[in-house]
Amino acid sequence: MSMRHSMLPGLLVCTLLISLGACSSAPPRQVYSPPAKSAAGAQQTVLKTAYAVLGHPYRYGGRHPRQGFDCSGLVYYTHQQAGVTLPRTSHAQFVASIPVSRQALLPGDLVFFRITRRKISHVGIYIGDDRFIHAPSSGKTVSTASMTDPYWEKRFVRGGRFF
Predict the structure, then answer these.
(1) CA end-to-end span of the chain, whole Å?
(2) Closest CA relative to residue 105, chosen from 134, 75, 126
(3) What is the CA radius of gyration of the chain?
(4) 7 in a domain, yes or no?
(5) Among 121, 110, 133, 119, which Cα is nearest to 52's?
(6) Which amino acids are annotated catalytic?
């Protein structure tokens, strides 16, 4: 057997391993797009937009002032106005956000709550002084709430940041 033939199986194995290694991990997916403006400017736009839609009706699946908002639709819309594209659901927003403790929350950060047992099911926009803007539930409107209210305090999980 020639030297060339004895090396062929080893070369085939190496080629196969290199090929498989290149396919084993997909490139990282971009979860959200960064703000088009400065972080401070984007946060201000989120807050200004959230205040502007106070009183708009709750609507499951809603994500625009003309339709009304559900909680994650409100967050999606306000961030979109600031040039930031987020995932659409509260759970996906939770997963994609940078974790922030309650003590480190800044106006414009998100606040996540577990209403049901399993996963994050509610999100709001922190406005400072333990208060947040959210689209609470059917029959209600976009409004402010206090994180010190026993209902919300018991269900708070963590804050999240995209700026």
Answers:
(1) 64
(2) 126
(3) 23
(4) no
(5) 133
(6) 71, 122, 134
Distance between CA atoms of residues 21 and 140, nearest Å: 53
- Of the candidates 108, 120, 140, 117, the one whose C-alpha atom is nearest the C-alpha of residue 41 is 108
More confident residue, 29 or 86: 86
Least Cα distance to 39 among 105, 100, 83 occurs for 83
For residue 125, what pLDDT band results from cuts at 50, 70 and 90?
A: very high
Report d(CA 18, CA 112) in Å as an integer.
Answer: 43
Q: Quick check: is 26 in a domain?
A: no
Q: At what angle do helices 39-52 and 71-81 cross, to 10 degrees?
A: 130
Tell how many helices (H) and how many strands (E) occur in the chain: 5, 8
CATH code for position 64: 3.90.1720.10
Is 13 within the bounds of a domain? no
Range of the domain at 128: 37-161
Pair of tokens at residue 139: 């029959």
Residue in the block written with tokens 């004895």? 6
DSSP-assigned letter for residue 26: P
Of the ranges 45-54, 90-99, 110-119, which one carries the lowest mean pLDDT score? Answer: 110-119
Mean local confidence (pLDDT), 60-70: 96
Whether 10 is in a domain gets the answer no
Residue with tokens 């084993």: 24
